[in-house]
Amino acid sequence: MKINLLSVGHSHLKVVFAIIFVLLSTMSYAQDKVYVSSQTNQITGFCALCFMQNGQNVVGSNENDYATMILPLGVSGRISQTLFFPATTKKITKVVIGIGSGNTVLSLQLLGGVSIETFMGNISNNDATQVDSSMLKLAQGSNRGTVELVPKKPFDRVKITLASGILGLNDGLRIYYGYYLTACGLPPFNPVYYYSFNGNTEEAVSGLNLHPKDPDFTPEYQDNMICNQGLGTSSLNKAIQLYSPPVSPALDFTISFWAFSDKIQATPGFSPLINIHAFGGDVKIGPNYIKVNGGGSVYPHMSDTLEHYVFVYSNNRTQLYINGQKSVYNEIWSPGAVNTPKPIYIYLSRGKLDELAIYNRKLTDEEISELTCSYGIAEFCHPYPKNLPLKTAVPEEVFTVSPNPTTGRINLDGNILLEQSEISISNISGKEVYYSKFRSKTIDLPATLPEGVYIVTLKTQAGKMYSRKVILSK
Fold first, then answer.
1. Taking a C-beta distance cutoff of 8 angstroms, is the pair 289, 396 a contact?
2. Which of 156, 294, 382, 462 to pair with 318, CA 20 to 30 A apart?
């Protein structure tokens, strides 16, 4: 699309430049890739010729080597690979997994047997999802692409499962890499105003920028805040005072931000204080208190680090949340003059402020908890919110055969019940070359077997079957 700026009216120019500014602001946020740090893989069900090849290749930042899941057509088994990530310390925008095939052009239909699930520790987030068009990113006619998802809960691992032999024996599913992106992007639930304070006081949604009252109140920025930079004062005699143009009021609203007030002794005129005013609501945070809406009630609170605060106003009542948890501060209050536009106002002295998001509606308790957890650092989010019941981790069933390759002796192990099971070994043509009831975890392969690839199959007393590939090398 071409825009002839000379033919556009002055008011339209403002709109055009505002759109360009918002797009550039959104795209300019720095994003960091945090790659997979380790992996495990598993084969379940009866799958005589299933195997995972070079599973370790998915670890690290090399995006061109790969692990391969081989699953023949028509089998009832499945292969899964779990990708482990380092501990999260920043806000996660999405997870990206590089996939591909050797010769087959990828398509959504071809990948119908691939699913993704996130975990925190051994606890599933109950979000197992078959790869669909919203997750799959493919270039036309290509044999490589990505699966992209935005986890809704804290996680430290992602499990990829291939079922039903979709890709066939000779052209397996390749997993190239996995990483999550961290960035100073928009918080969830669509705030109407958002200030990242990454070296400026620009507003990323509608361009409602903040400006200092005069040069004495010019903003200062500090590194290593919640997400890159944030507002911060280091001088005992420095304050920051910022105003926006007047904004229309809202009947209900929510104010979210991270803040910390210094505990050192005040100097005349510069007591430690963080003050945020929006939509008629007013929040003050001092060294050992929180005060909402200028009322007489003060909420005692002291912190030694940045904490997440959410202030909600709805139906003439205010509610304060700290680090995603509802506080006892819940009082009746009316903002008054609700039809009068007022500016967003910030005052900061001897403290820190980051990630200010303002909503023109009431966020629910669940949304506030998720908003806090979206930054990836709140303790109550890991491994599960405190207000949710504990879930019992169901351990994965593991069956292993080692060493692999072997010179003739193999050891069976895992967490499944081996007693009263049946052991059979077949060559790659499916011919059985060994059979026995389980007697020992150690098995000596027949000395007459030639070198090659064999399939060890275990059938438990309960009827479950597990298969592992082993290479005999003499």
1. no
2. 382
3-class SS of residue 15: helix
Report the relative pairing of strands 298-300 and 129-130 from DSSP bridges. unpaired
- Residues composing the chain: 474
For the chain, the first-to-last Cα distance in angstroms comes to 68
Q: Locate the DSSP E strands across 303-451.
A: 307-314, 317-322, 325-332, 342-349, 351-359, 399-402, 409-414, 422-427, 432-437, 442-444
Radius of gyration, alpha carbons of the chain: 29
Q: What are the CB-based long-range contacts (under 8 Å, 24+) for 287-293? A: 287/261, 287/262, 287/263, 288/263, 290/320, 290/329, 292/318, 292/320, 292/329, 292/331, 292/333, 293/318, 293/333, 293/335
Strands of the sheet with 211-212, listed across from one edge: 211-212, 239-247, 342-349, 273-278, 281-285, 289-292, 298-300
pTM over 0.70: no
Q: Contact 203/244 with Cβ under 8 angstroms? A: yes
Distance CA 467, CA 400 (A): 9
**pLDDT band per the 50, 70, 90 thresholds, residue 267:** low
Q: What is the 3-state secondary structure (H, E, C) of 255-288?
A: EEEEEEECCCCCECCECCEEEEEECCEEEEECCC
2: which 2 tokens? 């071409």
Instruction: Work out the average pLDDT over 265-281.
Output: 78
Contacts (Cβ under 8 Å, ≥6 apart) of 221: 197, 198, 199, 229, 230, 231, 232
Alpha-carbon span 60 to 247, nearest angstrom: 48
pLDDT in tens, 193-208: 999 998 899 998 999 9
